[in-house]
Amino acid sequence: MKHTWFVTFFLVVLFLAAQVIGLKVTQNYIDSAASAEAGELVWKDLPSIGGMKVERPDVEPQFSIWYIIIAVLIGTLLILLIIKLGKVLLWKLWFYFAVVLCLQIAVAAFIPESYALILSLTVGWFKVFRPNIYIHNASELFLYGGLAVIFVPILNVFYAFILLLALSVYDMYAVWRSKHMIAMAKFQTQSNIFAGLMLPYSAPAVRGPKKKVRTAVLGGGDIGFPLIFAGTVLVVSGFLHAFVVALGATAALIVLLLLSQKDKFYPAMPFLTLGCAVGYIATFLL
Question: What is the C-alpha to C-alpha distance for residues 118 and 14, in angstroms, rounded to an integer?
Answer without folding.
Answer: 25
